[in-house]
């Protein structure tokens, strides 16, 4: 990490990086639809070693802020413990999946990150496109689901399709687009700092940006909870 950053800064033609995040935990952890806890003695590179190196990058002026990604409540707590014990620069962000189809983040991570001011950068807020309505007639060959669907079957399983259809119908019932419903819900969460959007067309980008102006009323939020309770987290 310490050796590799300088060449990247040179390539990017900058003196520093605003936000530098660890992409994955080194230890074995749940991801991409895996459920249940499987203990492993192999923890990979210790969090303390990683954090110490990241902290040095900040002290050297090469990075401004630090973040983590795809972490668990234990992992977040470990970073916070090390920060307090050693005076490391604070972890400012966590980039984890969060959407109407995957609200696992609320189970343990939401409270600790909200109370400790570690901002959520939510990725996959549209559930791999399943919440946009574009897959209602199947996946186009050139779409993400068409190209990479075998890697992301949690989004195309029956529970996800069923829940997605209900959210899509709910959006239309209230005269907003399915995309706006999905993004506005994520935007409404008190533990959110930023919502990571993606688009392959300008029309999609415009719709994503317009969702910032959409406010969900109590009636819509209650309807969302009814769907969630009947089919919780179909794409963890």
Task: Tell me what you see in this structure.
With 236 residues, the protein is of the alpha/beta class. Helix content is 44%, strand content 11%. Helix 7 packs across helix 8. The mean pLDDT is 91.
Q: Helices and strands in order, then pairings?
A:
Blueprint (H helix, E strand, L loop, with lengths): L4 H8 L4 E5 L25 H13 L3 E7 L3 H14 L4 E5 L9 H11 L3 E4 L21 H5 L4 H4 L1 H16 L4 H10 L4 E4 L6 H9 L7 H13 L6
Parallel strand pairs: 1-2, 2-3, 3-4, 4-5
Helix pairs in contact: 7-8, 7-10
**Overall 3D form:** globular
Task: Flag low-confidence runs.
Answer: none
Largest sheet: 5 strands, parallel
The quaternary organization reads as single chain
Number of DSSP-assigned strands = 5
Give the rounded overall mean pLDDT.
91
Q: Which percent range fits the helix content?
A: 40-55%
Structural class: alpha/beta
Helix and strand string, N-terminal first?
Answer: HEHEHEHEHHHHEHH
In spatial order, strands of the major sheet run: 1-2-3-4-5
Compute the separation of the termini in Å: 30 Å
Strand content: 5-15%
How many whole angstroms does the radius of gyration measure?
19 Å
Number of helices: 10
Number of domains: 2
């Amino acid at each position: 990490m310490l050796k590799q950053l300088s060449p990247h800064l040179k390539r990017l033609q900058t003196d520093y990086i605003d936000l530098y995040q660890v992409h994955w935990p080194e230890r074995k952890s749940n991801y991409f639809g895996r459920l249940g806890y499987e203990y492993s003695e192999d923890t990979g590179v210790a969090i303390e070693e990683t954090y110490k190196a990241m902290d040095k990058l900040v002290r050297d002026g090469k990075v401004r802020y630090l973040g983590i990604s795809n972490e668990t409540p234990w992992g977040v707590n470990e970073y916070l413990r090390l920060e307090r014990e050693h005076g490391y620069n604070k972890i400012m962000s966590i980039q984890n999946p969060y959407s109407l189809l995957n609200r696992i983040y609320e189970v343990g991570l939401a409270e600790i990150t909200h109370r400790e001011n570690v901002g959520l950068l939510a990725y996959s807020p549209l559930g791999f496109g399943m919440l946009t309505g574009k897959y209602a007639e199947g996946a186009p060959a050139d779409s993400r689901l068409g190209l990479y669907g075998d890697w992301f079957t949690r989004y195309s399983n029956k529970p996800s399709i069923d829940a997605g259809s209900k959210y899509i119908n709910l959006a239309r019932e209230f005269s907003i687009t399915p995309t706006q419903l999905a993004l506005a819900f994520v935007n409404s969460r008190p533990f959110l700092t930023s919502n990571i959007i993606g688009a392959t067309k300008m029309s999609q980008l415009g719709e994503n940006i317009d969702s910032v102006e959409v406010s969900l009323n109590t009636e819509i939020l209650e309807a969302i909870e009814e769907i969630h309770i009947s089919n919780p987290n179909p794409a963890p």
